[in-house]
Amino acid sequence: MAKTPIKTAAGAAAKPKKIVIPKTIGLCADRLYVLKDEKAKLTKQLEELDKERKAIQEHVINELPKSNAKGVSGSVANVRVVTKDVPQVEDWDALYTYIRKTKRTDLLQRRLSEASIGELLDQGVKVPGVKTFTAVSISLTKAG
């Protein structure tokens, strides 16, 4: 297996780049499109880095226990395999019954499904305790 050189972040944190708003709305549209394209390229790079990170992480998880070591050190980092118990619902009805009985709503994350609520609202159904507000955003596509 070929050795991959370890790359580390160099130096202190970079100064935040000054944001310059283009002079016209047309130039704003063009700059937004360029930024969208740059972000897509960086996202692809991040996905590749994450793919490599996950593969190496999985390798360590699988191989470290075989070495009878609790951890291992490289020249810049230490690694050890850590385990924790993660809750998983196996009976939603039983959980909902428990939550109603004990009023322990903190066991769930509070977030609406926009698609499901939107479907009901489109059908004219008034969902108790739910209101809507108008969110403003932009649509950005390539010209021409």
Please give a structural write-up.
With 144 residues, the protein is mainly alpha-helical. Among the domains are: 25-73; 92-122, no CATH class. Helix content is 41%, strand content 4%. It is built from 3 helices and 2 strands, in the order H-E-E-H-H. It has helices at 25-63, 92-102, 114-122; strands at residues 71-73, 78-80. A two-stranded antiparallel sheet has the order 1-2. Strand 1 and strand 2 (78-80) form a beta hairpin. The longest helix has 39 residues, at 25-63. The protein is flat and about 60 Å long. The two termini are 49 Å apart. The model has no long low-confidence stretch (mean pLDDT 88).
In short:
By secondary structure, the protein is mainly α. 41% of the residues lie in helices and 4% in strands.
Helices and strands, in order, run as: HEEHH
The gyration radius over C-alpha positions equals 25 Å
Strands in their spatial order, largest beta sheet: 1-2
Oligomer: single chain
Structural class: mainly alpha
Q: What is the CA–CA distance across the termini?
A: 49 Å
As a percent range, the share of helical residues equals 40-55%
Residue stretches low in confidence (pLDDT < 50, at least 5 long) are none
Brief descriptors of the model:
single chain; 144 residues; mainly alpha; 41% helix
Topology (SSEs and partners):
Elements: H1 25-63, E1 71-73, E2 78-80, H2 92-102, H3 114-122
Antiparallel strand pairs: 1-2
